[in-house]
Design brief:
It is built from 19 helices and 28 strands. With 598 residues, the chain is α+β, with helices and mostly antiparallel strands. The chain is globular.
């Protein structure tokens, strides 16, 4: 029997024993990380076989469904085959949200079960309200997967390290003071930090608990006079302890926060209920007033300071050098030596590892040839690993975490002969990228206002890329960072889109994807900077901080405007100027040709 079928069967047996009609397994951990988690928390992939980083699994006695978004449809089709799990394509006509399905499928006086430590308060409260007419109940102390997963990985215990202020531009004391000032303005007595990046940013510490994301599993409570850091004490080295003690930070064991929350009485507690797990919320006395807003650190870390920006620019030069070395290797060896998706991926890892201050990949590299690139978050495996030939496109989406910053770049590379259609599609994606990159916009604009600049080029072809155009990028933190981004439509949480502020980093990554045929994406990181200020207000614009050639072998010059060509030529001139001093003679000659004028 398929192991996934066996697991679903075992889950249904446990559900019946406990009187649970529907079981819900989201993608997350006890900090509600939406994307990357430690292996211990990978319940959804364990139970479904779907390895994508978004969505949830819902199981009843007769139905099992996997909800995920458009980035993963093709991948999910493959991974769910023969599991009996139905793919629920989020956002498509006739497909209910997971929340709505749970409510509708729950029988009168029925029971919905889940592990409350990985589900948000906001979700649970909304579910409770919707279930009232059915007089249904919720069982949220039920980690049923734990009874099925016999060889479940342990919680991570990697050591913490200090990120010096020469990279961050501020000491931990200064950052704590900024946070406490924000609390005073909001008249908050206690701030509860649950998002993994927040304590790391505030305290200038980093960890290694999640692959490709330098964070540690930890909580923090901040008052006007104290900061308490809750973390596995085995992770705290002497250097880290001295650093935290110097900043007057108290260190407690990881799960002590549950008890400490029960001690808070008659206070105003600032916490984001979308980011607080339901079991933690249960520990907070009803005598307290809840200030339900995003942590002030979310915006603080999104707006990079002068030191961080300087480090980011330097880091992107290093990353660009690694990319050029990879592109030179790929272009000069294709057809001469055996290559496949995995060997290309490993070659790029090796080139990045040669760079100073490199720590790790910022996410698993996507090395996708031809039809595999239609899966936006494809990961090459031994079974899917395609051989590279001197034809078609190889899409490589990758990034690195360095002491000075975090990178995210995609290049779609012509390995040889291309069809006229492939060149046309590539050129349109390039035009889309360029159009957004040269945007000028008044302060107060959001990514929702700007998305059409990129997407409009693709929509004019009656095509859509079914995902956002860009996301924020952390500074030596997560490669995907809020609150800002570039996307169209109404946000799922109902909140207004974040205004783009000078100092924010956002990606620019439009694409075209034909299922099972091809995928084309070109991605750069953009820094929001001030433009002219005049009678009309403060104008903003973008500075591209990604330095790497765009494949001129793949373009159809006739499909580019003169403005596009001038912008591309200026970009390539800057790329050559910044990267050539760090290359060998032959690499420099190759880059000169790769950045020639169009």
């Amino acid at each position: 029997m398929n192991p996934i079928v066996e697991r679903i069967t075992a889950l249904r047996t446990l559900m019946k024993k406990r009187g649970i009609d529907i079981y819900y397994i989201p993608n997350g951990d006890d900090h509600l990380s939406a994307e990357y988690t430690a292996d211990y928390f990978k319940c959804k992939p364990f139970m479904s076989g779907f390895t994508g980083d978004a969505g949830c699994l819902i199981v009843t006695s007769t139905f099992a469904g996997l909800w995920t978004d458009g980035r993963y449809f093709t991948q999910a089709e493959k991974e769910l085959k023969n599991t009996g799990i139905e793919l629920m394509r989020m956002g498509q006509a006739g497909v209910p949200t997971a929340h709505d399905y749970l409510v509708k499928a729950c029988p009168k006086k029925g029971c919905i079960g889940f592990d409350g430590s990985i589900v948000s308060v906001a979700f649970v409260e909304s579910l409770k309200d919707a279930l009232q007419p059915k007089q249904a109940k919720i069982a949220m102390n039920e980690d049923l997967v734990a009874h099925i997963w016999e060889k479940r990985p342990p919680m991570p215990s990697e050591k913490l390290f200090v990120l010096p202020s020469k990279y961050t531009g501020e000491s931990a004391k200064e950052r704590i003071k900024r946070v406490q000032t924000s609390m005073k303005e909001k008249q908050a007595d206690v701030l509860v930090l649950t998002q993994l990046e927040d304590p790391c940013w505030m305290l200038n510490v980093r960890g290694d608990d999640i692959a490709c994301t330098p964070v540690a599993y930890a909580f923090a409570l901040v008052t006007q006079n104290t900061v308490t850091y809750y973390v596995d004490l085995k992770k705290v080295t002497r250097v880290v302890r001295a650093h935290l003690e110097d900043a007057k930070v108290r260190i407690k064991k990881y799960d002590a926060i549950y008890e400490d929350l029960t001690k808070l009485k008659n206070q105003t507690i600032w916490v984001d209920l979308n980011g607080l797990n339901a079991l933690l919320y249960e520990k907070i006395s009803k005598s307290n007033k809840i200030l339900n807003e995003a942590s002030p650190i979310l915006l603080m870390r999104a707006v990079k300071n002068a030191t961080e920006i300087k480090q980011i620019r330097k880091t992107h030069i290093k990353d660009g050098v690694a990319m050029v070395k990879f592109l030179y290797w790929l272009k000069t060896n294709i057809g001469k030596i055996p290559m496949d998706e995995i060997s290309a991926e490993n070659a790029l890892y090796a080139f990045r590892e040669q760079q100073e201050e490199y720590l790790e990949p910022s996410f698993p590299t996507i090395s996708a040839y031809k039809g595999n690139a239609a899966m936006m978050h494809y990961s090459a495996s031994e079974t899917s690993n395609a051989k590279l030939k001197k034809e078609g496109f190889l899409l490589v989406d990758s990034g690195g975490t360095y002491l000075g910053g975090t990178t995210d770049i995609t290049r779609t590379i012509a390995l040889g002969k291309l069809s006229a259609k492939e060149k046309y599609y590539f050129t349109k994606v390039l035009a889309s990228n360029l159009r957004l990159g040269r945007a000028k916009f008044l302060y107060g604009s959001t990514g929702q206002n700007l998305d059409i600049l990129a997407r409009g080029v693709i929509w004019d072809m009656d095509i859509d890329y079914q995902c956002g155009t860009g996301h924020g990028v952390g500074h030596v933190l997560g490669v995907h960072e809020g609150p800002h981004g570039i996307r169209w439509g109404n946000p799922a949480n109902g909140k207004l889109p974040a205004v783009l502020e000078p100092g924010m980093i956002v990606t620019n990554e439009p694409g075209i994807y034909e299922p099972h045929k091809l995928g084309i994406r070109i991605e750069n990181e953009l820094l929001v900077v001030k433009g002219k200020k005049n009678f009309y207000g403060q104008f903003l614009e973008f500075e591209c901080v990604t330095y790497c050639p765009i494949d001129l072998d793949a373009i159809d010059p006739k499909a580019l405007s003169q403005e596009d060509k001038a912008q591309l030529n200026a970009y390539h001139k800057d790329v050559y100027k910044k990267l050539s001093p760090y290359l060998t003679k032959v690499e420099k000659a190759w880059l000169k040709e790769a950045t020639r004028e169009v």
